[in-house]
Amino acid sequence: MRQRLNLMVITVLAALTGCAVNLPQPDAAQLEPKEKAWQASAPSTARLAAQKEWWQSWQDPVLDGLLIAAQQANPTLEFAQARIREARAKAYSAKSYLWPTIGATAVGTRSQNELMSPNYITNNGSVGLDASWEIDLWGGIRAAEQGLVANMKAREVEWHDAQVSVAAEVANAYVALRAYQAMADIVAADLESRNRSLQLTQDKASVGLASPVDVALADASSADSVAQLAEMQEGVAISIKALVAVTGLSEAQVRAQISQGQRQLPQPLGFAVTSLPAEVITQRHDIRVEAEKVKVAAADVGIAKVARLPSLSLFGAISVGRQETSSVELSGNSWSFGPTVKLPIFNAGRLKSEEEAAQARFEQALAMYQQQVRFAVREVEQTMVKLDSSNQRVAATLRSVAGYQKQQDATNAMWKAGSANLLDLEISRRFLLTAQTKQISLQREQLALWISLYKAVGGEWPQNSVSH
After folding, report:
1. Would you identify the CATH topology of the domain 2-456?
2. 367-417 tens-digit pLDDT
3. Exposed, middle or buried, 439 (CB in 10 Å: 0-12/13-18/19+)?
4. Could you tell me if 143 and 21 are in contact, meaning their C-beta atoms sit under 8 angstroms apart?
5. 3-state SS, residue 76
C-alpha cells in the first residue's frame, strides 16, 4: 500500500514537470529604437573600407604591429577572459542540478565504555551508497540555467568590447603620436627659419641697417618657437608612454617600431554606416550586454515564482554494516527509498515579496536597456554631426594654409629685398604656423571621430587575429 502511494505521488508530480513557469518577455516595440532612420547626414570621406576589415584598411604596418601586441597581452582582456571562464563554469554547473547526486560513505569505529559492565570493546563498520534527486517540476532549474547562460554570453560580449576598446585606445595614442611628430617637424622647420632671420637681423644690426628692437623681436620669435617645439616633443613622449602602457611592449620596442613609419598622420579612412538604426544598435556591445541582463532578470523572476510552488525530491540509500562485540558478531544490510514533497504554507509573505522584487529588477533591466538604446542612438547621431563639421573645417583649414603659405613666401621675399619690415614677416609667419598646426589638430580630431564612430556602431576586432 505504501509503495503504491509513493508511486502515485511520484507519477502525479512528475506529470507536472512540463508545467514550467512563464518567464516575462519584452515585446519588439520595447527593444527597438523609436527612430527608424538616422537624422544626421552619413559621414563621407575620400576613402571607404568595409567595416569588418577597417583596421587592416589603414595599411599602416606600424599600427598593425602595435594593435596585435596590445591584443596579445593586455590586463583588460585577461580580466575579461577570466570573467568568461567564471561565467562558463557557473553555466555548466547549473546543468548538474537536473541530474541525481550520488555519494558513498564508509565508516569504521572501535570503542569501549568503562562506565558500563561488562565493558566490551566494540568494532563497528559500514559502507553505504546514497542518492538524491530534486525533480525540476516547474522549470526553476532550467530558468536558473538560462540566466547563467545569458550571464556567460554577456561576459563574452564584454570581452569583444574590451578588444575594440583596446584597439581604439592604441589607435588614438598612435594618431596623437603622429600628429605631435608632424607638428614638431613643422615647428622645427619654422624654428630654423626664425634662427636664420635672427642671424640676418643681427648681421644688419652690426652694420647699422637694423635696430636693436628688430634684433630683440627676432630673438623673442626664436625663443617662442623653441618653446613650441618643446611642447610638441613632450606630446610625442607622452604618446609613446601611452603606447607602452597599452601594448605591454618596452619603450625601446615601441620607439623601434614607430621609427619605421612616416612622421605624419594616417590618411582619413571611413566606412559606410547602415541606414537602419535598429541594425546598427543591435551590433553594439553595450546593447547586447544589456539584452543579456534582461534575460538574467527574467530568469530570476522564474526562480522566484518556482520558490512559491511545491517541490519534489527523491532520496534513496543502501548500507552494509557489521558489528563485533566480544564473541558476538552482527552483520546486515539496510535500504531506504522515497519521495519528499515540500509545500510552502506560511512564510509571512517573504516569497511573494521576493517574486515582486525579482519582477521589479526585470523592469529595471528593461528600462536600462531602453535607456542604453537611446544613448546609443544619440552617440551615433552626435558623432556623425561632428564628423560632418570636421570635414568642413579641415577643408577650410587647407585653404587657409595655402593662402598663408603664399603670404609668407611673398613677405619673406620682400623682407630680404628690404621692402618689408621684420614685424610684417613675423606676423605672416605666425599666421602660417597657426594654420598649419590647426590643420594637423583637426585631422587628428577627424581620425579620432572615425574611431569613435567605429565603436559607436559596434565595430568588431577581427576574430581570427587573437582568440580566447
Report:
1. Outer membrane efflux proteins (OEP) (1.20.1600)
2. 999 999 999 889 999 999 999 999 899 999 999 999 989 988 888 888 888
3. buried
4. yes
5. helix
